[in-house]
Amino acid sequence: MRKIQMVDLKGQYQHIKEQVDRSVQEVIESTAYINGPEVHQFQKELEEYLGVKHVIPCANGTDALQVAMMGLGLKPGDEVITADFTFAATVEVIALLGLTPVLVDVDPISFNIDIEAVEKAITPKSKAIVPVHLFGLAAQMDELMALAEKHNLYVIEDNAQGIGATYTSKDGTKTKTGAIGHVASTSFFPSKNLGCYGDGGAIFTNDDELAHTIRGIVNHGMYERYHHDVVGVNSRLDSIQAAVLRAKLPHLNNYNAARRNAARKYTAAFAGIENIITPTGFCDAGNSICDVCDCHVFHQYTLRILDADRDGLVKHLNEKGIPCGVYYPIPLHLQKAYRDDRYDEANFSVTNRLVKEVISLPMHTELDDVQIDFITKTVIDFVTKA
Ligand SMILES: *Cc1c(COP(=O)(O)O)cnc(C)c1O
User: Fold this and answer.
1) Ligand 1 within 6 A of 160 CB?
2) I need a labelling partner for 254 at 20 to 30 A (CA). Which of 59, 101, 161, 345 fits?
3) CB 166 less than 6 A from any atom of ligand 1
4) β-strand 276-277 against 222-224: which pairing, if any?
5) CA 96 to mean position of chain CA atoms
6) Which regions of the chain carry the CATH code 3.40.640.10?
7) Residues 90, 83: contact at Cβ < 8 Å?
8) Separation of 184 CA from ligand 1 center, angstroms?
9) What is the whole-number distance in angstroms between the Cα of residue 126 and the centre of ligand 1?
10) Is 111 in the pocket of ligand 1 (CB under 6 A)?
């Protein structure tokens, strides 16, 4: 059996090595390292892939969130509602900009922001909602957009884990995540579904004016050379990373299909094991994994382990040479940096439980049947003995 990895970037690289090496070499020869033609081409290709009017590349997914909020003109004192169960980047930029983070509970089935909790958290100071398409599954965008319209809020999609995922609206319209809200952010961190070989990120929007504002913000607030109209930042995707992303983008649908295929095998193996809850919330919200659309792109394959020793399982898997992850072990509202007297523990019952139950198994494009078989047998062995 090949050594099992949480993410197999080397294995994936082997298949595209020629293209990547050639493109990177060409960038080096061209010396157009910043804002070169590769960046512009990648931007166009990603706009086309997503069906979104504007892609603005930037330095990483955290900057993308920050710049999106700056572009919307959010001001200190404005409240921004986001999920308690996610990576810290989201709440971090809200706090950094002097905005007031309002963390809310998530749904135990989809792991995504809970619509009722969002509605309850809306006040006259609310300005934006930041849903995260956690683990690669779209948040309930119809409901969120309706709430936003009713209360005059912006929706900023954190699409760092969801690139390539499709959301099907109640009227049947299919839209890629990141092309639905007023603005969206993504990350090209190497382990993301579309990762480069360093840091990278992008902002998406269908709003021409906002796109123009954001293009200036990522470039020191410049709209005309050496005229600084607003306070901006320096946040760029470099040409070498763009070349890597251009080589990978044509494979993204296949990459996501490979992840879904691995997820399907995991889920089949865990069927009938009582204390394992496999991830659900696919387009039909059933237990089977949809074959037809890209409704879940499985950035992570995350189980809930009930009435068993989750931490013991982590240790056991590691001892057997199986890497795994706990995303996320601490709710954001209990993190030192984001604790606040405003929060009432009673409102976080789902996150407080999930942090004790979740475990993410190896998930990438290169998993084979022998590995999946070994992983699932080892998990089942442990949880049924416990
Ligand atoms: C990875 C990630 C980010 C941050 O992306 P970076 O490129 O590492 O800055 C933000 N939000 C979520 C949900 C992420 O998973």
Assistant:
1) yes
2) 59
3) no
4) unpaired
5) 20
6) 9-250
7) yes
8) 12
9) 23
10) no
Range(s) for CATH 3.90.1150.10 in the chain?
252-385
Ligand 1 centre distance from Cα of residue 57 (Å): 14
The distance from CA 302 to its chain's CA centroid, rounded to whole angstroms, is 14
33-50 pLDDT, tens per residue?
998 999 999 999 999 999
CATH assignment, 9-250: 3.40.640.10
Q: Is it the case that residue 347 has pLDDT exceeding 60?
A: yes
Q: CATH homologous superfamily for 252-385?
A: Aspartate Aminotransferase, domain 1 (3.90.1150.10)
Q: Tell me the CA–centroid distance for residue 309 and ligand 1, in Å.
A: 29
- How much is the pLDDT for 237? 97
**65 Cα nearest atom in ligand 1:** 10
**Separation CA 98–CA 74 (nearest Å):** 9
- 87 Cβ inside 6 Å of ligand 1: yes
Atom of ligand 1 nearest to the CA of 299: 15
Cβ of residue 195 lying under 6 Å from some atom of ligand 1:
no
Our mutation pick for probing the ligand 1 site, out of 60, 62, 111, 237, counting the most ligand atoms within 8 A of Cβ, is: 62
Q: Where are the beta strands (DSSP E) in 159-247?
A: 166-168, 174-176, 183-187, 201-205, 222-224, 227-228
Q: Taking the CB of residue 34, how many other CB atoms lie within 10 A of it? A: 9
What number of H helices and E strands is found in the chain?
A: 12, 14
Considering only the C-alpha atoms of the chain, give the largest distance between any 2 of them, rounded to a whole number of Å. Answer: 68
pTM of the predicted model as reported, rounded to 2 decimal places: 0.96
189 Cβ closer than 6 Å to some ligand 1 atom:
yes
Each residue's pLDDT tens digit, 180-195: 999 999 999 999 999 9
**Residue with tokens 């709003």, as numbered in its chain:** 207
How far apart (Å, rounded) are the C-alpha atoms in residues 273 and 172?
A: 34
- Tell me the C-alpha distance between 290 and 237, whole Å: 34
